[in-house]
Amino acid sequence: MTTTRTRQNRQARGPGFACTECGWTSAKWVGRCGECQEWGTVHEGAAPAAGPRTTATTPTRSPARPIAQIDVEQARARPTGVDELDRVLGGGLVPGAVVLLAGEPGVGKSTLLLDVAAKVARTTGQRVLYVSGEESAGQVRLRAERIDALADGLLLASETDLGTVLGHIEATDPTMLVVDSVQTVASAEVEGAPGGVAQVREVAAALIAEAKRRQVPAVLVGHVTKDGNVAGPRTLEHLVDVVCQFEGDRHSRLRLVRATKNRYGPTDEVGCFDLTEAGIIGLADPSGLFLSPTVRDVPGTCVTVTLEGRRPLATEIQALVAPSMLSNPRRTTSGIDSSRLAMILAVLQRRAGLPVADRDVYVSTVGGARVVEPAADLAVALAVVSAAQDAPPAPGLVALGEVGLAGELRPVVGAGRRLNEAQRLGFTRAVVPTGSIEPGTAPAGLEVVEARDLAEAAHLTRMAHVPARPEP
């Protein structure tokens, strides 16, 4: 009898263990989470399970109406004044929308949102509330002065208590809300440290409910884990309307904002920013950051065009091949996947007869760009061939294509957009896989040469002689 009552009491209390990373619950302790597969994150102390709701507890605020009578003007996006961010959001911020902006520490999230808040306050003439839970008001004020974000309508509060934050929203009635960050705000009614699963879920739910009730756009800053994912429970990403990732190398000026979830616009757009001492500046044409116009006719260089979302970016790849004094030659990369380079070198050795097995190979991108798509395989291979033979490639050349293990070249997605970008930048010759474009559709002034395999592409590159690319 005692055992039966104990089991019934445990079932009434609900699961007693929960994962601090994703919120997964279990009736007993386990060493590994069954949802996110993390070790050592399941701890005791889950909230009691609530019973099913069978009756309406609150009256409806507005009756259900035919869909044709719904006012769509309230769902129109309002521009923020930052064109690159508006591109990612789908035109701007929608009233009542909640945006989660996540990124690594020091990438520039606070600087970008402070600039956005100031521009919204200036353009609308209304109040914008910026809540900082990580920095003091004086520190935020110094940054605002440095990036020229001192707007009269920009209200600043440094708070970490959820009740106090909601009180500021009630007192100021802002037209836009920024919370930096959601992991630093805690509720006194929920147990656990700030940033825990229960705290993040409660804080996010309260802020989202307030934004929906007031029809005020809210931007929440989120931390990321060591794997680059948004910290906190997975339900946080489901609760918000837009999830944006703020990416960038600490040693590079380029910053990218891409939407991984967007209920009001596309998810294949990318915003490009230049991080300077004066703040973050949107880049409508960032291709020049990844090219070195001062280097001409140097062996080991080749240009490709990558796609960031739907935006083509011209990127220069440099390679250096040198004799090795080691039994295991070095393979060093910067901005290129090392495993992808190893595969390309094996194909060059076996299919094209290029002796690189006993040589050190260094491959890097210009400007700190990161190239991860297979469309840059041909450019990497041609740069290595040029460096190994100490022969510069043809001037004005751009290369597109994926390299297979058999040495064949495979067409890439968006070849037309890539070639149009190459022609706009002044390139005069392009080497692409066979069948990449339809006959007669090549951009005017750009000679497109098709190659079936890697050996043929290397031969066409060495034999081509065209005028050099004009100076920018």
From TrEMBL:
Known function: Plays a role in repairing double-strand DNA breaks, probably involving stabilizing or processing branched DNA or blocked replication forks. DNA-dependent ATPase involved in processing of recombination intermediates, plays a role in repairing DNA breaks. Stimulates the branch migration of RecA-mediated strand transfer reactions, allowing the 3' invading strand to extend heteroduplex DNA faster. Binds ssDNA in the presence of ADP but not other nucleotides, has ATPase activity that is stimulated by ssDNA and various branched DNA structures, but inhibited by SSB. Does not have RecA's homology-searching function.
Entry note about domains: The middle region has homology to RecA with ATPase motifs including the RadA KNRFG motif, while the C-terminus is homologous to Lon protease.
Residue numbers covered by motif RadA KNRFG motif: 261-265
An example Gene Ontology biological process: recombinational repair
Provenance organism: Cellulomonas bogoriensis 69B4 = DSM 16987
Similarity comment: family membership: Belongs to the RecA family. RadA subfamily.
Region Lon-protease-like: start-end pairs: 360-472
Annotated GO MF terms: ATP binding; ATP-dependent DNA damage sensor activity; damaged DNA binding; hydrolase activity; zinc ion binding
Compositionally biased spans, kind Low complexity: 46-66
Gene behind the chain: radA
Name recorded for this polypeptide: DNA repair protein RadA
UniProt: ATP binding residues: G103, E104, P105, G106, V107, G108, K109, S110
Presence of the UniProt keyword ATP-binding in the record: yes
Cited HAMAP family: RadA_bact
Region: Disordered, residue numbers: 45-66
Chain ranges of the RecA family profile domain: 74-224
InterPro entries documented for this protein: AAA+_ATPase, DNA_repair_RadA, P-loop_NTPase, RecA_ATP-bd, Ribosomal_Su5_D2-typ_SF, Ribsml_uS5_D2-typ_fold_subgr, Rubredoxin_2
Keywords: ATP-binding, DNA damage, DNA repair, DNA-binding, Hydrolase, Metal-binding, Nucleotide-binding, Stress response, Zinc, Zinc-finger
Coiled-coil spans in chain: none
Lineage: Bacteria, Bacillati, Actinomycetota, Actinomycetes, Micrococcales
Gene Ontology cellular-component annotations: cytosol
